C-alpha cells in the first residue's frame, strides 16, 4: 500500500527527538503556553521571516482571531476564494461578518484577483487569501488591489508552511497571516494547534490578548477574549519537527518534479501550474481530469491511496445556500468534481512515486 499520508513512519524517523521533547514538557509540567510555546513561537517567527508569532489552539481559531484583531466594522463583507476548506469562510461568519465568495485561478487554484476585484463593494473591508495546496497566490497583485481599495489582507497559510513568494515567506506579506498545525500538514502537531504571524506589533498584542481571555495581567482583563492557547506538548513537538521541515519540503518538491516529468501529456490530465516567482510547498499535488472518480477507483485497486480536496465548492454547500452563489459561473463551481490529490510526502520513496506515475499512465492507456 502506498499511503496518502504516513505519520507513524515520520514519527519513527525522529522518534528519539520527539520522545525527549515530550518527556521534557512532562518533567517541567509546562502544559499550557509557557516556555515551550514561547520557544516555538520565536523559532517559527524566524523561520517565516515574521516579526511576531502567537500560538493558538488551531488553525480555524487563528483565522477568527486574526479577523477580530483587525477590528473591521461589524457586518463587513470579507472576500474568500470559493475553493478552500470551510474553516476559511466559517471564520468570517463567526466573527460577525459576511462572506462573499470569489473565483479561483484555473491554473493554480489560488484566488483569482480579477474575480476578487469584481466582488469588491463599498462594504468590503478585507480579503482572506489562501495559499492553497502550498502554492502562494499572486500576492503582489493582491496587495496592490487591496491597497487601492483600503482592504485588510489576511493570509491563510494552513497548507503553505515554508512556501515562498518572490523569495519571501508567506504569512507576513499581508497585514496578518494564519497557520494550522493539524497533524496532516507539512508541519503538523500531534493534535490541534495553530499560529498567527504578523509584522505589526499592535496587531500582535491584540492577537495575544484575544487568544488569552483579553488578559493584560493575571486576573486582569481589558476585554472578553477567548481561550485559544498553544499547549506545551504540541509546541515542543513542533519545535522538533520544524528542524526537519526544509528536508521534508525538499522531498515533496522532488516528488512533484518527478510527477511533472512522468505525467506530462498523459490523457486529459492537467498538472498543477508551476510559477517561476514562487516556491510551492506541495502540501498537495492536485491534478484535474474528467475521469476523476474512475482513476481514483483504479488507483485504490492498485494499492495507491489518493484524496479529494475539496469535493464540493464552498458556494454549493448547504451552509452557504443563503448567499445564492452556487450557480455563479465560477471555475471553482465546475472543477470540484474533477480534482484529485495524488500521494506526496516525505514518507514516499522514489519507487513509490514511480509506481504511482506508472499506474496513472496505465489507467489512461487502457481506459
Q: Compute the number of helices.
A: 13
The end-to-end distance, rounded to whole angstroms, is 22 Å
| Strands in their spatial order, largest beta sheet | 1-9-8-5-4-2-3
Order of helices and strands: HHHEHEHEHEHEEEEEHEEHHEEHHEH
Largest sheet: 7 strands, mixed
- Secondary-structure content class: alpha/beta
Q: What radius of gyration results from the CA coordinates?
A: 21 Å
Mean pLDDT: 97
Number of strands: 14
Proportion of β residues? 15-25%
Shape category: globular
Low-confidence stretches: none
Provide the helix percentage.
40-55%
Description:
Helix content is 40%, strand content 15%. With 367 residues, it is an alpha/beta fold. The protein has a seven-stranded mixed beta sheet, with helices on both faces. A hairpin with a 2-residue loop joins β10 and β11. α2 (15-28) runs antiparallel to α9 and α3 (34-47) packs parallel to α9 (232-242). It is globular. The model has no long low-confidence stretch (mean pLDDT 97).
Looking at this protein, list some descriptive labels.
367 residues, alpha/beta, seven-stranded mixed β-sheet, three-stranded antiparallel β-sheet, 13 helices, globular
Please summarize what this structure is.
The chain is an alpha/beta fold and 367 residues long.
Show the helix and strand layout.
Elements: H1 7-13, H2 15-28, H3 34-47, E1 52-56, H4 59-70, E2 77-81, H5 86-94, E3 98-102, H6 113-119, E4 124-130, H7 139-149, E5 152-156, E6 164-165, E7 168-169, E8 176-180, E9 194-198, H8 201-211, E10 215-217, E11 220-221, H9 232-242, H10 245-263, E12 278-279, E13 285-288, H11 292-301, H12 331-335, E14 339-342, H13 350-366
Parallel strand pairs: 2-3, 2-4, 4-5, 5-8
Antiparallel strand pairs: 1-9, 6-7, 6-12, 8-9, 10-11, 13-14
